[in-house]
Amino acid sequence: MATRPVTRDPSWVTLTEACVILGVSASTVRRWGDTGMVRTFVTPGGHRRFSRAGLDALLPDRPSARPSLADLGETPGRMTRGYRRATEDGAPGLAWLADLDDAQRERFRGFGRGIVASLMAALDSDDERTRTRRLGEAQDACGEYGRIAGREGLGVITLADTFLRFRRPFLDQLAAVARRREFDATATSTLIAEANAALDGLLLATLRGWEQAITAGAGLTRTVPTSRSDQ
After folding, report:
1. Sign of the CA dihedral 96, 167, 171, 114?
2. Using CA atoms, how far apart are residues 61 and 160, in angstroms rounded to an integer?
3. pLDDT of residue 90
4. SS3 annotation, the chain
5. 102-121 in b/e burial notation, b at 16+ Cβ within 10 A?
6. Which residues pair with 200 in a beta bridge?
7. Can you give the C-alpha Rg of the chain in angstroms?
8. Are the C-beta atoms of residues 132 and 202 closer than 8 Å to each other?
9. How far apart are CA 44 and CA 36, in angstroms?
């Protein structure tokens, strides 16, 4: 069986060479390879090689040149208002929210604002450590959100539905930002893919927090009515 040449083939370069070509960090090149922005393969010895043609295609308008969302004025507050309007316009309200008192409602909203701020900071960072730290903050907040929901007696289906009501408008708002700011197709698809991956982790953190509260017996007494889907 023919094997792919892996050494001194000018059409495939090492990680170090890819970093020099693009002028970005190794973690950024790896991330672009993982998301499919650059074709890669792994040698029998376990070393990654990157397509030289794919790297060259990124040079004119590579995603690292995408302006910061914060610098463009896309603040967490603006994003929150945008997806809240989309949620209110596109779907019926969440019935359980109406049964919360003002303090409870503000507590949930406070966690929501913190989650959005940390998520946007993670998406905006090219530094892997900063991204990991800010995503960790968002996951911690989601975990606490889930624990509070469990203690308040919120059912898991209603909790998941609440998260999904946030997810779609949030992604729609990111796509709208990309269109408004004229991001190229690669930058847009990468931004949405990274947001989707981050949101998957946030949903799992929320459900784990809810499960911890229920397992501890803190959510046995219901103070918030459940939807029919929870019964």
Report:
1. positive
2. 38
3. 45
4. CCCCCCCCCCCEECHHHHHHHHCCCHHHHHHHHHCCCCCEEECCCCCEEEEHHHHHHHCCCCHHHCCCCCCCCCCHHHHHHHHHHHHHHHCCCCHHHHCCCHHHHHHHHHHHHHHHHHHHHHHHCCCHHHHHHHHHHHHHHHHHHHHHHHHCCCCHHHHHHHHHHHHHHHHHHHHHHHHHCCCCHHHHHHHHHHHHHHHHHHHHHHHHHHHHHHHCCCCCCCCCCCCHHHC
5. eeeeeebeebbebbbbbbbb
6. none
7. 21
8. no
9. 20
The pairing of beta strand 40-42 with beta strand 12-13 = unpaired
Q: Given this model, what pLDDT does residue 25 score?
A: 84
> Which pLDDT belongs to residue 205?
94
Q: Which two tokens stand for residue 201?
A: 């982790």
Chain-centre distance for alpha carbon 58: 23
Low-confidence residues of the chain: pLDDT under 70: 1-9, 60-68, 70-77, 79-100, 218-231
Whether 212 contacts 147, CB under 8 Å: yes
* C-alpha torsion sign, points 141, 92, 99, 101: positive
Q: In this structure, what token pair is assigned to residue 9?
A: 């083939």
Give the residue carrying structure tokens 């059912």.
155
Please give the domain boundaries of the chain with CATH numbers for all domains. 12-64 (1.10.1660.10), 66-230 (no CATH)
pTM: 0.60
